[in-house]
Amino acid sequence: MYRFTLFPVFLLVLVLATISCLDEIGPKQTEPLSGPDHTSKPYARYWWFASVMKNSDIRYNLDWLKENGFGGVEIAWVYPLNRMKPEDSSYTPRQAWLSPAWQEVVQYAMEYADSIGLGCDLTMGTLWPFGDSYVPFEQAGRKWGDTGWRQEITASWEYPDKGYVIDHLAEESYLPYFRRILDSFPRPAMKIPTAYFIDSWEVETRHLWTDGFEKEFIIS
Prior knowledge:
This protein is an alpha/beta fold.
């Protein structure tokens, strides 16, 4: 008789002890992970086609990404959509490239992404290859044997305005560009680190040259 009575009592004690242990470790298991956890989730390339960027639209986009399991975004600034229609030469209103209004909306995107647990990385310029209307002639990409030619950038946030592509082979040309871009980026306080990156080098490769390039191939 006792063995049949004690067995259920033993099971009850075991269950209660198990529940007590789970209560102790439960909060540790259910706390949201901190630190680099977001990097295990995919980032989305966040194309900003040149137009008036609105906070409400940015918030809608980022909320959708958060709700669907993304870890963050990579903001890339590109041309207005009418560039794909040669018959449409109208100017698409937008925040001017690197202007205070542009900086304000970029900062909003960074801060809002961070507030909902999304990372927010930034590309180092507008479209590819990197350059803009601020690049001077003497710092632009060039060709061997053609001193009057410089590579232009036409499909950028500034379209239809043109600019020059930086000379990626010369430190005295690309460093001023990258410093200017970095100085233009907002730097709000962020819980999730922001990365700045270059993911494509789409320059004119035929006769690609820079001053002193031949010295790199001299065997001493």
